[in-house]
Design brief:
Blueprint lengths: L1 H6 L12 E5 L2 E5 L7 E2 L7 H15 L10 H12 L9 H9 L8 E3 L8 E4 L2 E4 L6 E3 L3 H7 L5 H11 L3 H29 L2 H14 L1
Antiparallel strand pairs: 1-2, 3-5, 4-7, 5-6
């Protein structure tokens, strides 16, 4: 179960997990220990040496074996679309996203994945980088985490630099791009759902950014 992994991931030295997890209503709520003098990853300051470390962390995570479910991309997307409807500005993307979902795994075995590699989920403590916040951990396509992190990189030159480190073949590059498109489409609808639920403008801003990112 995901909650067991979050509270006790075993001997994964590159992870930091909550020191308290409790059930409130229909939700699990976790609390992280406070680490003084720690900071989250800065994409603006990200250099090649740290890209290599992050790539190593992702690769190590993918080697782990846990009793967790396999990610269902259609089910997860529909979870938000069923609540907020399709974003009108992204209607022209829907047929392409449907094609991506039809051949999502392409017969490749899924690997243990973090599934949300935004900069805030990398914590730098005592000059070491740790992965945190495993809320969405599951088995997923082996390129999903790479796509997740690549989507966060800017400018384009930094994206290219990280993708080059992946050493992917032509078909893998196509798949990486498709997963990036799916994720952007997904998180746009997630942000719309979060905005309608909370009315926090940061989610409206994120939705608009994702819409613009897809074009």
């Amino acid at each position: 179960m995901r909650i067991i992994f979050i509270s006790n991931p075993g001997n994964l030295s590159f992870t930091l997990t909550p020191n308290k997890i409790e059930h409130k209503g229909r939700r699990w709520v976790s609390k992280m220990r406070y680490y003084p003098n720690s900071k989250t990853l800065s994409i603006k300051k990200l250099k090649l040496d740290r890209m290599k470390i992050i790539l190593s962390l992702i690769n190590e995570l993918h080697q782990q074996k846990y009793d967790l479910k396999v990610f269902d991309p259609r089910e997860f997307l529909d979870l938000f679309i069923s609540k907020v409807g399709l974003i009108e500005e992204l209607n022209h993307w829907t047929p392409k996203i449907n094609l991506i979902l039809q051949n999502y795994y392409d017969g490749t075995p899924p690997v243990l994945s973090h599934n949300d590699l935004v900069p805030e989920n990398f914590l730098i403590k005592e000059h070491q980088i740790f992965l945190i916040d495993f809320e969405y951990v599951s088995y997923n396509h082996y390129l999903y985490d790479y796509a997740s992190f690549t989507n966060e990189l800017y400018p384009m030159a930094k994206k290219r630099e990280f993708i080059k480190l992946l050493n992917l073949n032509h078909q893998e590059l196509i798949k990486l791009n498709q997963l990036m498109q799916y994720q952007t489409y997904l998180w746009a609808h997630w942000a719309k759902y979060m905005y309608q639920a909370s009315r926090e403008r940061k989610y409206l801003k994120l939705m608009k950014e994702k819409i613009e990112q897809l074009g």
